[in-house]
Amino acid sequence: MSGLGTVYSIGGCVAFEVARRLGEASDGHLDHFWRRPTIALMSNPVSRFRFDLHKLPAEFVNYFVNDAAGAHRTEIENLPAGSSVVIDVTRDIFTGIIEIEPEAFVMNPLDGLGIVAGLTTDSMTPEILAGALKTEPRIIAPLSDTETFLTLWKAAIDKKIELLSKKFENILLLEIYFTHKKASFERSSPFTSDDAAIRNSILSSMYEHLRDNSKINIISIEKDHMLTGRHVAWGGPFYTHFIDETYALFCDAATEVLTQGKQTDRSFLTNTAIDRAKKYEDARHALKNMEERYREARRALEISENKNFETKDMLQKLENETTKRIESLVEALSKTIPQSEFDQQVNIITEREAELEQYKAIAIEQANQLGQAHARIAEYSKNQEKLGADIIAAQAPLLARISKSTARRTYTLRRKLGLTPRL
What we know:
With 423 residues, this protein is an alpha/beta fold. The chain has helices spanning 13-24, 38-42, 58-69, 71-77, 90-94, 126-133, 146-165, 196-210, 244-258, 267-336, 339-416, and strands spanning 7-11, 29-34, 82-87, 97-101, 104-107, 138-140, 168-174, 217-219.
């Protein structure tokens, strides 16, 4: 498709999907720039960073810095000249903006929960945001501040189109509205939101502002053809997540505009319809195989249930036979030994066991007493030995003096008797 050449895209899911398909049919979809709210994209960069970035989620800091410094616009300014760019304004209607200093705006992180990386209900709250900015920011929301929002947006979108017109031959603006139903014949298919009608009204005002701008091509399809589905890309049913045929209609409308009506074969829709038919046939084939596997599984289950019934029957028979055998043994035992004698023997054994327990208790008590007696005897012997030693130790000096006195008296007596020679 020579009319498109290389394709870039700026915006949300629809811009990406349409540009990707157009690029596949021409010289390629070169790049996509996600989530660039127009007012923030075209506003003045912040004069200086005085924010506490540590309070922001780490994954979001890079986006915030680029947004505040005007780096997102610089990315687009530095793009090589190309043939076509596809844009949408869904990000503008989804996310509000905050003014961090006069005429310097960034995307409101509180509107990016679950959309922008790092922003969750735990990582981003009004308190966290105020702490990071060191002040309560001025918040401008499309729904609650519609007049102020539209004034700022109209000025910003005019600047954006002027910038893009210097880079690209063709600017394709997709006229997207919130879908209100799923692609289904079911009566329960409506897919609505309390604020969908309000957002669509604001979107209409935004498109009307651009309707007479000669530098862009507004690509439109029937609103009733904007349908979501159970298995659409980007997370399933949503107000701006469309079925493949919707994207194909946008592609065919873009092609017709760019070729000035020369290409009217609706090739994108035709190819998508054929692909859908192939998927339908594959699904029917898979369903048929699943039905056959279900029938096989059902037959296997019935066989298993029959075998299970046979097993239960065998177990019941075995239980009955076992019960009969036990009853027969009891009956035979009662015939061999009279019941009264059997009971008497049981009583004797019980009494003997009781006596044995008593004897064991007595033996244990006697053993304990014997052990205590041995301990007392050992203690007495020990005390006696100590007493004897103490007595000997106490009498030793007296015995020594008696022995010495006796020796002197013996010596004197011997001298008197002349038994000891004089020297």
